[in-house]
Amino acid sequence: SSIGIVQNWRTDKEILDLEKSAVKRGVKIRYLGPINSKTRPFVEIRQTFGVEVRNHSSPHTRFAVWDSKILMISIKKAKQEEFMSLWIDNEVLSKIFEEYFNNLWSV
Q1: Of the residues 7, 12, 18, 76, which has the maximum number of CB atoms within 10 A of its CB?
Q2: Are 83 and 7 in contact, with CB atoms under 8 Å apart?
Q3: How far is it, in rounded angstroms, from Cα 78 to Cα 76?
Q4: Structural contact between residues 28 and 52, judged by C-beta atoms closer than 8 angstroms
Q5: CA distances from residue 50 to 15, 27, 43, 86, 100 in whole angstroms, order as listed
């Protein structure tokens, strides 16, 4: 499984190909992020190959959880579009973020 809260849907072809391949292998991918006229094309590309997406705007939160075990938290740096990511291999902490995500997903 792969879940995440995103702010910017833009990505390169390599990431899209990885997501597409994962979905074909049965990986369930779900994202929460802003859906508007600017982001819609990037959202729709993912939806065409089976990524589940819901609208959610949170300018301060960015994280992802893989297989309920690995957590990635992005922290904004000084520049507007610059982020630093912390990768944490901790099942307990990952499950806390996963539960937070699922609560937002169900709203």
Answers
A1: 7
A2: no
A3: 7
A4: yes
A5: 14, 10, 11, 27, 23
Type of residue at 57: S
The answer to whether the beta carbons of residues 50 and 2 sit under 8 Å apart is no
Averaged pLDDT for residues 77-86? 75
Tokens of 47: 């939806």
pLDDT at residue 68 tops 90: yes
At residue 95, does pLDDT exceed 90? yes
d(CA 75, CA 73): 7
Say if strands 83-89 and 70-76 run parallel, antiparallel, or are unpaired.
Answer: antiparallel
93 within 8 A of 63, measured Cβ to Cβ: no
Query: What are the C-alpha distances in Å from 58 to residues 23, 41, 92, 107?
Result: 26, 20, 24, 14
Amino acid at position 43, single letter? V
